[in-house]
Specification:
By secondary structure, this protein is an alpha/beta fold. The protein folds into two domains: 139 residues, HAD superfamily/HAD-like (Rossmann fold), CATH 3.40.50.1000; 82 residues. It has a six-stranded parallel β-sheet, with helices on both faces. It is elongated and about 60 Å long.
Length: 230
């Protein structure tokens, strides 16, 4: 196989996302407790998460847009407390800043630095990570996200959109990600080559069909493999 470019998942591939998401929820809750105590009492963190899941289940048309789902959740939480004008911009900035305060896996940045000089990379994510805020934008030729594309992984159309941005055939692109279904199966069905960042060393779920082209423990192994391919 000849790899001419990469598409790269972000959350849980380059960094663990859960700590940042949990911190974001805590900081939003702290703001509510200080400025809107009635809302904070009615909607503590577990209840707010449940409401967010309820909104997601109701608005399947927004499955590709976590930002819109979060805004709707806040509007509903405030409305139940008799407040129609929720401070969405302030709440979003608190959340978004904390959500992007991620800590990269130790292997991620060295790998990006090695890859960038030889292969163009397009980030390909269902989430709302901000490459500029995280400080890694210079390593990416393109940023392709579900919210802008209108569809989320594993839909083949988001992979096709990334291939179009890169100006390459799908078979010339290696998609790299941590999620067996969203990343590996989605990319495979769209015609891309696949690399599974399998940090925990799990066996490939046979029910998902053909295994990834390459199964790796971390990003450093990815670069070593790429360089062996030439």
């Amino acid at each position: 196989m000849r790899i001419r470019a990469l598409t790269l998942d972000l959350d849980d591939t380059l960094w663990p996302v859960l700590p940042a998401l949990e911190r974001a929820d805590r900081e939003v809750d702290a703001f509510l407790r200080q400025h809107y105590p009635d809302v904070a009492r009615a909607w503590p963190i577990p209840a707010m998460r449940a409401l967010r899941a309820e909104v997601a289940a109701e608005r399947t048309d927004l499955a590709h847009d976590f930002t819109a789902q979060r805004h709707l959740t806040m509007r509903r939480a405030f409305a139940t407390c008799g407040i129609e004008d929720a401070p969405l911009e302030a709440l979003w900035e608190i959340y978004f800043s904390a959500r992007n305060g991620v800590e990269l896996y130790p292997d991620s940045l060295p790998a990006l630095e090695r890859i960038t000089g030889r292969w163009p990379i397009a980030s390909l994510t269902n989430g709302n990570a901000d490459l500029d805020r995280i400080g890694i934008r210079l390593h990416f030729a393109h940023h392709v996200c579900a919210r802008d594309t209108g569809v989320a992984k594993p839909d083949p159309r988001i992979f096709a959109a990334a291939a179009e941005r890169l100006g390459l055939l799908p078979a010339e692109i290696l998609h790299v990600g941590d999620d067996p279904e969203l990343d590996v199966v989605g990319a495979r069905d769209a015609g891309l080559c696949t690399a599974w960042i399998n940090r925990a060393g799990h066996p490939w779920p046979g029910a998902l069909g053909r295994a990834p082209d390459v199964d790796l423990r971390h990003m450093g192994e990815l670069v070593d493999w790429l360089e062996r391919q030439g």
